[in-house]
Amino acid sequence: SVVVWMNIEERKIILQEIKKYGKSKLNLLWKSLKDKKLFLLDMDGTIYEGARLFECVNEFLAHIESVGGQYVFITNNSSRSVKDYVIKLSNMGIKVTEDNFFTSSQATALYLNKHFPNKKIYCMGTKSMIAEMEKYGVNITTEADEDTDCICVGYDTELTYKKLWDVSYLLQTKKDIPYIATNPDRGCPTEFGLVPDCFAMCEAINYATNRRPLYIGKPDGFMIDFSVERSPFSKEETVVIGDRLYTDIASGVNAGVDTICVLSGESTMSDIENSEIKPTYVRQDIKEILKELQE
Length: 295
Known about the structure:
A seven-stranded mixed sheet has the order 1-16-15-14-2-5-6, sandwiched between helices. It has twelve helices and 16 strands. It has helices at 8-21, 23-34, 57-66, 82-91, 104-115, 127-135, 161-173, 198-209, 222-229, 245-255, 269-274, 286-294, and strands at 3-4, 38-41, 48-49, 52-53, 70-75, 101-103, 120-124, 139-141, 150-153, 179-181, 187-189, 194-196, 214-215, 238-242, 258-262, 281-283. It is globular and about 60 Å long. By secondary structure, it is α/β, with parallel strands linked by helices.
């Protein structure tokens, strides 16, 4: 079913106008989605779940290109480098280049280069994430050295107890050390449910150290703003599509662009109804969005 998110008062006003002007007024509500040219897509829970690509994703991306639009995958999942994401999506049958991505690892690398240039950064992350950071010129170490200037934590699918030990040691022996994390996702969706993501790992560290990091990725609007700025399109022509209210949808709201919450991942209609964060649109999945765009 097609849903544009409105509160009760807004719905009353729209229904009154439809009654007054006819169904053509209702059609205007759906036009704005067809006017979008820049589609900023989450991945986990939005276009795939684990190794399973959702239905009609390739057709959806082809449609965007056919109308002169662009798509960028905006992901908080910092466990993979952009190079690895290109390989992953290519293996799933999606034609992409590195220009089709902007990850929380990239956003964090830009932040570290701006605020801690040439400083030694201890990184608790995957080898792939570390390679991405080093590609941007970040001075990474994986040892808890005395001269470490900053700590950076990502969604570490290669997590070991030594890494938890190292971060805890640095946080408690260097009391004022800056502490950064790539993304505040609580869990990462899989075929069977959620597994601990970056936020959950940082909360484990918090229980021991009483320190929480500054999170860089979504819901901050930076990743959205950056993607719009490097495109030929305006914010009015942009839409963020994702399955999480507190990251995907919130990032669009914070950046001042329209959003679509898909129900193919974490969020349910009940979550949306009970949340203060409201998407512009609610759709079942990418297939439903494609059908609407093609009508």
